């Protein structure tokens, strides 16, 4: 008989889901996903744009449910799609009050789905959008620490707002650079994996004032539900684990991370 998994913990203080892909959760309705998240005190959910094909879809989701907010941007996997028309769409949609950041943007040299020069060009163009619109950024970087830092160094002085390096799995050098420049680091279910000691080392060195929680649903489901489809409702497991790594009570950490999320994305 299979061992029953732990119930999802419910904490008194609300939690903000700063990074997921609600349009990829195709087996459940939007209301079902949001309602399950609310039952475990997830207060707000930010769903992330990644491609030309889901810019409008993400925006529509933010209009359909008051719990959902969104971003606009082209992921490095889809950098081939980036052109003047796509840029114009990002700029137009990003003026909506329910859009809180430019992203998911950055570099991915692990999969290399797109030519690296195109990835860098799309990243730089979207950093300029963030500068022009005074919005924070949501950055994806994988096996591209040096180029990510070099590009950020060229733009950070012009950025009215910083942003988050999401799903942080990069090295200590990039972490220290980004923290030094005022960026937040986003941590998700990877932090709960047995093999992710490198991520937990970054959690340890990250000030609590710079930590954000995310699921990256439907990917990277945290232990003990690893192997199933991820959803925002599993965020409390991540919060609990990060608190244990930081050696602070979870109910002490939650108000600070909530404040971090509100300050970065909601100007409060």
From TrEMBL:
<feature type="binding site">
    <location>
        <position position="216"/>
    </location>
    <ligand>
        <name>a divalent metal cation 1</name>
    </ligand>
</feature>
<comment type="similarity">
    <text>Belongs to the metallo-dependent hydrolases superfamily. TatD-type hydrolase family.</text>
</comment>
<dbReference type="GO" id="GO:0046872">
    <property type="term" value="F:metal ion binding"/>
</dbReference>
<protein>
    <submittedName>
        <fullName>TatD family deoxyribonuclease</fullName>
    </submittedName>
</protein>
<dbReference type="InterPro" id="IPR032466">
    <property type="entry name" value="Metal_Hydrolase"/>
</dbReference>
<dbReference type="InterPro" id="IPR015991">
    <property type="entry name" value="TatD/YcfH-like"/>
</dbReference>
<dbReference type="Pfam" id="PF01026">
    <property type="entry name" value="TatD_DNase"/>
</dbReference>
<dbReference type="InterPro" id="IPR001130">
    <property type="entry name" value="TatD-like"/>
</dbReference>
<feature type="binding site">
    <location>
        <position position="166"/>
    </location>
    <ligand>
        <name>a divalent metal cation 2</name>
    </ligand>
</feature>
<feature type="binding site">
    <location>
        <position position="21"/>
    </location>
    <ligand>
        <name>a divalent metal cation 1</name>
    </ligand>
</feature>
<keyword id="KW-0378">Hydrolase</keyword>
<dbReference type="GO" id="GO:0016788">
    <property type="term" value="F:hydrolase activity, acting on ester bonds"/>
</dbReference>
<feature type="binding site">
    <location>
        <position position="104"/>
    </location>
    <ligand>
        <name>a divalent metal cation 1</name>
    </ligand>
</feature>
<feature type="binding site">
    <location>
        <position position="140"/>
    </location>
    <ligand>
        <name>a divalent metal cation 2</name>
    </ligand>
</feature>
<feature type="binding site">
    <location>
        <position position="19"/>
    </location>
    <ligand>
        <name>a divalent metal cation 1</name>
    </ligand>
</feature>
<keyword id="KW-0479">Metal-binding</keyword>
<dbReference type="GO" id="GO:0004536">
    <property type="term" value="F:DNA nuclease activity"/>
</dbReference>
<dbReference type="InterPro" id="IPR018228">
    <property type="entry name" value="DNase_TatD-rel_CS"/>
</dbReference>
